Amino acid sequence: MATTTHFLNSVSSLCLTSIPRSSEKQPLPAHANVTATRRRLVITCGAKRKSPDDYHATLKALNSRDRRPRKSLGQHYMLNSEINEHLASAADIQKGDVVLEIGPGTGSLTNVLINGGATVLAIEKDPHMVALVRERFADSQCLKVLQEDFVKCHVRSHMCSLLESVATSCGRPRLAKVVANIPFNISTEVIKLLLPMGDIFSEVVLLLQEETALRLVESSIRTSEYRPINIFVNFYSDPEYKLKVPRSYFFPQPNVDAAIVAFKLKQAEEYPSVSSVKSFFSMVNSAFNGKRKMLRRSLQHISTTLEIEKALEFAGLSATSRPEELTLDDFVKLHNSIGR
């Protein structure tokens, strides 16, 4: 309780004092090779910029705790602080922002967020990393670290308490942001937890496996990659692929490249108009359970074949439509037609 009280009391200082920056954002070095493809950027630098969170510093931090990255926790530490700067930039981190970070690791991204003027709530499962980050930022009043499994913790409760304290201290309510380099193996769980929280967060910026990033943002209808998660993502947010991150920037090096994706969360009034969000996604999931089946067959447990055909016609869709042929708007029309 004393720790929580100290943290919440310290939040008010954000309104009165400025937070010193250890370093200003630097432009990409002149020798960097930058290639733009549609909305995507690929950055490969000829030489790494010196930073307090490079390879040697990361190893030193881990060795100080006699730790090695744990595969079971999906631990891959970022060695290039420029990528951390890009993560913060994608979320447009400003002085006074409240940021949720998932899996701070050695604190390299945490450092960038705090230097950018943010108050950070970091949730870390590994107790050794919790101790390391707490020790590293022991003098900072802008960080609270919780030792919890993110996918099981009460993130809404944690964030509501923090946002309420900031609103009380600074006299203005605000939405928080999420900026995180998350373990690839919990990406879908994290996305499903965070995207419906438009009343808490305005932006969710994640470093994901590149294949996952592309599937979430760019999968289109009539492709094998088009799945219910695409409907989910676009229902709750406007996603944007920001940046490709080479696998060589991680320790240990994963078998795949990564990418930064920014999700601009929608407010409840911006969601597609459906009578029941729960029944809508139940229908979508049922439709894709028989992906190659026509909807009049895969949705028979919801209504009769004749009623589904009438609903398809009312929605302006073919009676032989399959789920991979429908956009988000099409699914909304179909759901509302079945329930009318």
Structural features, described:
- With 340 residues, the protein is an alpha/beta fold.
- Helices cover 38% and strands 18% of the residues.
- Helix 4 links the parallel strand 4 and strand 5.
- Helix 12 packs across helix 13.
- The chain is elongated and about 65 Å long.
- The N terminus is likely disordered.
| Strand residue percentage | 15-25%
The termini sit apart by: 52 Å
The structure class reads: alpha/beta
- Helix and strand run: HEEHEHEHEHEHEHEHHEEEHHHH
Instruction: Look at the structure and give the mean pLDDT.
Output: 83
> Quick one: biggest sheet?
7 strands, mixed
| Radius of gyration of CA atoms, rounded to a whole number | 22 Å
Helicity, as a percent range: 25-40%
Name the overall outline: elongated
With strands numbered from the N-terminus, the spatial order across the biggest sheet is 6-5-4-7-8-11-9
- Total beta strand runs: 11
Count up the helices: 13
Low-confidence stretches: 1-51
EC number: 2.1.1.-
GO molecular function: RNA binding; rRNA (adenine-N6,N6-)-dimethyltransferase activity
Domain Ribosomal RNA adenine methylase transferase N-terminal: 83-267
InterPro entries: KsgA/Erm, rRNA_Ade_diMease-like_C, rRNA_Ade_Mease_Trfase_CS, rRNA_Ade_methylase_Trfase_N, rRNA_adenine_dimethylase, SAM-dependent_MTases_sf
